[in-house]
Amino acid sequence: MRPELEEVQVLEDYLQGNLNEEQRMDVAVRLLWNQDWQQKLAAQKLAYQALRMAGRQQLRRELDAIYTRLFG
Amino acid sequence: MNSTQSLPMDKALLSDREKTLERIYAKTFPMVRHYIREHGGTTDDAKDIFHEAMILYYEKTVHEQLILTSSVSTFLMGICKNLWRQHVDRQSRNTALTENHDELLWEEPEENDEPTALKLMTFVEQLGESCKSILVSFYYFGQRLEHIAVQHGYQSIRSATVQKFKCLERLRKAVSHLSIERFKP
Which one of A43, A58, A71 has the shortest CB-CB distance to B29? Predict the structure, then answer.
C-alpha cells in the first residue's frame, strides 16, 4: 500500500485500539505535535460517523421494504 | 427451510441479512403493533418505533457482540416499550409547555446536528456506488472482507483491503474541511 493508505490504516488501528503499546505511543506522540495528523484523525472520525449514518439510512430502507412486503 | 435459521443471530445477520431481518420482522412486528395501538399509537408509529429498535438491535449484535439471554422478540419488545414511553413523555411535555405559553422559546435539544448529518451523507453518496457499498458493508453492516472481495469481484482479500482504504481516504478528504470548520476554535 502507498504511504498515505498505510497512514489511514494506522489511524484506524489507533482508534480501534488494535495497536501494541509501542505503536500506540508512537501515534499518540505524533498526534501531539503534528497538526496535519490531528486534522486527519478528526476527519477520519467524521468519515466513520458519515458511514454510520449512511448505513442506518440503508438499513431503514431495507426495513421499509420488508414492511411493504409483509404488511403493506 | 431457511439455512440461516440454525446459526447464531450475529452470524445469521451477516450471512443473510435480508432473510434474517424478515424472519424477525414477521415474528415480532405484530406484537409491537398490538402494543402501540393499545397504548394510543398508530400502525405508522409502531413501524417507526420498531425500525429504530431493529437498528439498535442490529448495531448491538454485529458491533458489540450482544448475546441475548432472552429471545430476540422479547428484547425488541422491551426496546419498543421503552421508546414508546419516551415518545409519549416527550409529547406530553411539549403539550404542557405549549399550553402554558411560558416557555415558547424552549427548544428540544437536537440529538443530531441536521445540516451536518445531511452533508455527511452527501459525501458518502458522492463516493459512487462501488466505494459506498464497500465502506458501508464493512464499517456499518460488519461484513467480512472475504465476503466483500467476492461480492465486488476482487481477486484477493488484500486487494479488497487496499480498495477499502482508498475509498476511506477519499471520504476522509471529502469530509476534511467540514471537520476543520467544526473544530475551529
Answer: A71
By C-alpha distance, the chain A residue nearest B112 is A53
Contact B117, B95 (CB under 8 A): no
Distance CA B185, CA B180 (A): 10
Which residue is associated with the grid cell 421494504?
A65
Q: Which ipTM did the prediction report? A: 0.94
- Cα separation, B66 vs B57, whole angstroms: 9
Q: Which of A47, A57, A24 minimizes the C-alpha distance to B51?
A: A57
Which of A51, A52, A69 to mutate against chain B (most B CBs within 10 Å)? A51
Rounded alpha-carbon distances, angstroms, from residue B61 to A47, B10, B135: 22, 6, 19
Query: Apex CA B53: angle with CA B65 and CA A50, to 5°?
Result: 75
The per-residue pLDDT for range B9-59, each reduced to its tens digit, is 888 999 999 999 999 999 999 999 999 999 999 999 999 999 999 999 999
